[in-house]
């Protein structure tokens, strides 16, 4: 199993950050980030699948995918604040050259830039997993961009079982409004080495993916190759992946895109800190 540093805590209170809806716990350092998990594992997705990495998972997100596989960073955000010094000390405990900053949506936090700068100074390779709605100026080695499709929007019929009905209705409108930001997407692909990683359920998702790629190619000042596009099966459990993976692999071959597994799900199912 992956190695956990057990920094995740239950959030307390009703105080909410206006950017992300995350509750707070304890003192917030001036340079701190709300950390849900910090652990050592294998990268499970994308072009670096299989690479040993330290994962820094921040809490809080500006979207609410109904199938979110990190529920406690979005629908029910929980975290403990850690200072930049504390985060770096935990990372340095592990024998890894790669660090993955993930969430939630880590780029909603301005303090993520300082962390990425510190990691760059120390020679780490950094991947940032982002939904593509925020573009920040930071040293990022790989922007792993996962634009959210219409099929990710929560509805009363498709929302997490534990989600409050009124909360789900509110987020349905906000999520649909904010899930695609073409300007931010273009900035990310222009500024960084990138991969576009789409969560796909079935062939109904493909027209939207193809339309978005066409729009992005029109506005971006860099080429976006089919090889930069990865299709990833929707599913946070082995059982769900068994339903989606073959049809998504077939779609990747049909359209000339890359297929990416969810290695961590194959290995550890839906266990936390993977």
The total count of helices amounts to 7
CATH topology-level name = TIM Barrel
Helical proportion? 25-40%
The residue ranges in which pLDDT falls below 50 over 5 or more consecutive positions are 1-23
CATH class: Alpha Beta
Q: Oligomeric status of the shown chains?
A: single chain
How many distinct folded domains? 1
Radius of gyration computed on alpha carbons: 18 Å
Strand content: 15-25%
Q: Which CATH architecture would you pick?
A: Alpha-Beta Barrel
Number of strands: 10
Q: Structural class, judged by helices and strands?
A: alpha/beta
Largest beta-sheet details: 10 strands, mixed
Give the integer mean of the pLDDT values: 89
Protein name: 7-carboxy-7-deazaguanine synthase
EC number: 4.3.99.3
Function: Catalyzes the complex heterocyclic radical-mediated conversion of 6-carboxy-5,6,7,8-tetrahydropterin (CPH4) to 7-carboxy-7-deazaguanine (CDG), a step common to the biosynthetic pathways of all 7-deazapurine-containing compounds.
Pfam family, one: Radical_SAM
